[in-house]
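Archive entry. Fields below.
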Amino acid sequence: MIRILVLHGPNLNMLGVREQEMYGDQTLQSINAQLMELAQAEGVTLEAKHSNSEGELVSWIQEARGRFDAIVINPAAYTHTSVALRDAILSVTLPTVEVHLSNIHQREEFRQRSYLAGVAIGQISGFGALSYELGVRAAIDHVRKARGKQSG
Ligand code: DQA
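PREDICTED_STRUCTURE:
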């Protein structure tokens, strides 16, 4: 069974209230419910967690080692600042997909740089809540292919 960890960074608990023109009107709870449905349909397990705290996200990434097969993360504002999250991902060597609701490359210059992109297997940015779904699909596909290679 493939196990996917979805991590939501700071202020994403405010989705549905926060800058709706930028991030849409879906709440985090409803995004998570959609991802759970997708996981069920794909026959994988999925756990979704949110934190406003960088240290907590670092700890969860560290704890994912051996418990999950891939991580899908929207690091939110920490995307543009966090060497700690980058190092955490490097340390666990779990395939990680970076997702963003908005297209960070069309926004302010400070948002166009991601500290995580260089250690992620890929980045999905700009499709609203669909970015998460695409991210989870990409993570599942990556793990399936890696397992196929191992057994083949
Ligand atoms: C975001 C983009 C970030 O720049 C911002 O700080 C967020 C959300 C997104 O999903 O588009 O909080 O990660």
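CURATOR_NOTE: The radius of gyration is 15 Å.
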